[in-house]
């Protein structure tokens, strides 16, 4: 905000716009200076909230039920532990069963993207039909015409793709009825998994990322070194780089390194949908992706707050959708081309992020392990009246 306001040419107008911002900045600095002094911290927080409410005529904290991330105060403190944990090659070797899981996840995302792209083709055909726009349509019109798909039919498509995904895993790992524990070896399932889930091209740019959460279960650190441990797959987040979240990037000792690694993941520019700072659908200032490089493009699909001076921010009405090399392609004003699924990237990621489940939901789901890695934890589902617990 400061960078934008300081570009205002009229000195008087610029100073009037900066004055309330400076009040809030001073309040933020007082909170930071309070450190661990509880009394000073409470006073500084109360002062900042009072100034904010006076300046904006808006509550300083959000309530549940609002159309944005709830219960977030104006400032907050994130911390990073000074401890460092080191694990040996034995832990990495024990993660080998992640490979067939991640390959199957890539297949899952590719199938989802293919379904959505097929439906988008039908929308394009209708818009480009005789009497319509011809061989191309503008991206804004196309985006709004696809809304019923992205927030309706695509949800059904995701459920159907997941059901097929689970049927294929059922052919790989046999789970006897009423079993509590199922154990197989990586070597026994690797070939079958490769047959069921052949290599799949990324459906959209972010689908190259798969972020597993792996926990180590052991008596103590010494047991890990001795090989006496078990790994537990907590979650396998799809189409998202967990390390790209703002809270991790802001606390990383070398944020520039993360951007450099992003460049290795994507040697060329990306097309990213311009998103609001916060939204109830998995988005807040703490978890939004901030690993965006100057060479990446933003496409604005709706009216959102953005830096109007940022290069490579494109209005959707200024881009067009056409067919190139057999696929729907978004063509930007400077001639750059991207798969149209990249325009849907955030919606697809929201659908896919928590899709990965090897076994279908049931009253009881057994524990499934591949070598030392628990790939599905035992769980129960209790239903009573209108309440459901899992």
Q: Please write the string of helix (H) and strand (E) elements.
A: HHHHHEHHEHEHEHHEEEEEEHEEEEEE
**Terminal Cα span:** 43 Å
Low-confidence stretches: none
By DSSP, the count of extended strands is 16
Helix content class: 40-55%
The largest sheet is:
5 strands, mixed
Count of helical stretches: 12
Strand order of the largest sheet: 2-12-13-4-3
Instruction: State the assembly state of the protein chains.
Output: single chain
Rg from alpha-carbon coordinates: 25 Å
Please state the average pLDDT score.
90
Structure, explained:
It is built from 12 helices and 16 strands. It is α/β, with parallel strands linked by helices. The strands form 5 sheets. A 5-stranded mixed β-sheet has the order 2-12-13-4-3. A 4-stranded antiparallel β-sheet has the order 1-8-9-10. It has a 3-stranded parallel β-sheet with strand order 5-6-7, with no helix packed on it. Strand 8 and strand 9 form a beta hairpin. The longest helix is centred in the first third of the chain and has 30 residues, at 98-127. The radius of gyration is 25 Å and the shape is globular.
């Amino acid at each position: 905000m400061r960078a934008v306001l300081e570009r205002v040419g009229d000195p008087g107008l610029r100073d009037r716009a900066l004055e309330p911002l400076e009040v809030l900045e001073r309040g933020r600095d007082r909170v930071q200076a309070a450190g661990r002094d509880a009394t000073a911290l409470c006073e500084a927080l109360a002062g900042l909230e009072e100034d904010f409410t006076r300046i904006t005529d808006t509550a300083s904290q959000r309530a549940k039920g609002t159309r944005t991330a709830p219960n977030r105060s104006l400032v907050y403190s994130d911390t990073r532990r000074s401890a460092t944990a080191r694990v040996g090659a034995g832990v990495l070797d024990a993660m080998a069963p992640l490979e067939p899981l991640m390959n199957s996840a890539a297949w899952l995302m590719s199938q989802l993207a293919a379904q959505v792209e097929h439906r988008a083709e039908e929308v394009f055909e209708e818009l480009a039909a005789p009497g319509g726009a011809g061989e191309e349509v503008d991206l804004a019109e196309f985006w709004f015409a696809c809304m019923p798909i992205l927030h309706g039919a695509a949800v059904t498509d995701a459920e159907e793709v997941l059901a097929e995904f689970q049927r294929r895993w059922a052919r790989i790992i046999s789970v006897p009825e009423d079993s509590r524990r199922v154990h197989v070896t990586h070597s026994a399932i690797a070939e079958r998994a490769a047959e069921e889930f052949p290599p799949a091209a990324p459906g959209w740019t972010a689908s190259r990322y798969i972020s597993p959460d792996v926990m180590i279960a052991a008596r103590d650190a010494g047991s890990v070194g001795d090989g006496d441990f078990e790994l537990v797959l907590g979650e396998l987040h799809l189409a998202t780089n967990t390390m790209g979240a703002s809270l991790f990037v802001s606390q990383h000792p070398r944020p520039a390194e993360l951007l450099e690694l992003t460049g290795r993941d994507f040697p060329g520019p990306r097309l990213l949908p311009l998103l609001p700072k916060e939204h109830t659908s998995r988005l807040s200032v703490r978890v939004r992706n901030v690993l965006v490089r100057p060479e990446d493009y933003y496409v604005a699909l709706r009216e959102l707050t953005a830096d109007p001076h940022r290069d490579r921010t494109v209005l959707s009405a200024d881009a067009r959708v056409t067919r190139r090399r057999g696929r729907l392609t978004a063509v930007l004003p400077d001639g750059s081309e991207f798969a149209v699924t990249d325009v849907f990237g955030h919606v697809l990621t929201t659908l896919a992020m928590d899709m990965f489940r090897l076994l279908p939901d049931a009253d009881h789901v057994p524990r499934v392990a591949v070598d030392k890695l628990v790939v599905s934890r035992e769980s129960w589902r209790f239903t009573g009246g209108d309440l459901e617990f899992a």
